[in-house]
Amino acid sequence: MVALPRLIRGRALRRDPATSSQCEGAASVHQSIILKVQAEAQDRNVPLASILSRARIAARRLSLPGVPDWLEKETDGYGADDELPPYRIVECWHEFRNPMRGWCPIVHEGAQPVVGLFQSVYELEELLHGASSGYLTAARGPVRMDAYGSALTFPTRYRFTSMEVSRALGMVRRLILDWTIALESAGVLGDGTMFTASERTEAYSVTQNFIAQNQSIGVAGNVSGGTNTIAANQTSDGGMDVRKVRDFLAETSGLIAHLPSAVRDEMREVVAEAQAEAGKANPDGKKVGKALAVIKDLGMRAGGGVIASGIVSGVGVLLS
Questions:
Q1: Number of domains in the chain
Q2: Residue 281: how many CB atoms within 10 A of its CB?
Q3: Structural domain of residue 264, as residue ranges?
Q4: Rounded CA gap, 205 and 235, in Å?
Q5: Please, is 158 exposed, middle or buried when counting C-beta atoms within 10 Å of its C-beta (0-12, 13-18, 19+)?
Q6: Where does 148-247 show beta strands of DSSP type E?
Q7: How do residues 121-160 score in pLDDT, each as one tens digit?
Q8: Whether residue 151 is found in the same domain as residue 91
Q9: In Å, how far are 6, 172, 253 from 207, measured between CA atoms?
Q10: Maximal CA-CA distance, the chain
Q11: Which of 20, 177, 216, 240 could bond 41 through an S-S bridge, CB–CB 3.0 to 4.6 Å?
């Protein structure tokens, strides 16, 4: 791919105790790794790869599940068999190289071809830096076409705008910013890279709720080798975005163990049934809708905890 391959001398000064305390408190806040990541995420001059590295340190020190996995994949890149977040799947044009006319379009019936961005954030930033033409390409296998009475073989490629990659990187930056804002609102700041036990507990709840609310951290289906042609938006006959439903169900499945035991088993069964239906090529929207309604009811019965509230809210968005 372009392709997408100072010493102060003199007598010591006396400090007022109150002023000293305020200064130390301010210094502690300024040392907060959470606020540091938050500030960098808002600064477009700071490379996203650098922000991710600091965010990974914070997540590990907080012993958080879920988010570190996502941060690591964004930092190191996704494997060929990994499932990609929706923002890393972009529409493209399929072209073949005519020896006489150069690159020419290949018309596809039905869904627009898509390409998966499996590269690390660092690699994507480097690719954007070198995309002077505003486009990036991904090599594809050759095609055979009938012309002039014989079958000819031509090399092909996928071509897409660099703006699509910019949007993907922008989404990662926004998600990191939103996550750190949620942690700050809950009082999770830390002293440098150290956090108290209560901060780690609070951060766990905040992060699980964040994952439930932000399904872009979920997956959108496997795009083998980054070249599988799939529909960008699949809907059920009930009008719901099936991809978002699958993402929500996958996230909810991972949160069930943290729900009250009174609803845990029933929630697990309903989610499994919904996943089975939503996983079909042509899912029944009515069945999926009913299952989501039950999931919402179970979430309400689970009480006002952060995770349960997140599940209820997530269903509300899907059914709106």
A1: 3
A2: 6
A3: 233-319
A4: 32
A5: buried
A6: 150-161
A7: 999 998 888 877 788 887 777 777 655 455 677 888 888 8
A8: yes
A9: 41, 15, 16
A10: 97
A11: 177
Task: Check if the beta carbon of residue 106 is closer than 8 Å to that of residue 143.
Answer: yes
250 in the same domain as 122: no
| 174 and 76 in a common domain | yes
Among candidate residues 21, 60, 68, the one with its CA nearest the CA of residue 190 = 60
- How far is Cα 53 from Cα 56, in angstroms, rounded to an integer? 5
Instruction: Using alpha carbons, select from 47, 2, 50, 61 the residue that is nearest to residue 189.
Output: 61
Cis peptide bond upstream of 26, omega within 30: no
Note whether 60 and 185 are same-domain residues: yes
Supply φ then ψ for residue 93, to 5 degrees.
-110, 140
**Rounded to 5 degrees, what are φ and ψ at 306?**
-65, -45
Strands (DSSP E) contained in the chain are 89-91, 93-98, 102-105, 114-116, 135-147, 150-161
**Integer Cα distance of 272 and 299 in angstroms:** 15
What are the E-state strand segments in 64-122?
89-91, 93-98, 102-105, 114-116
3-state secondary structure of 26: helix
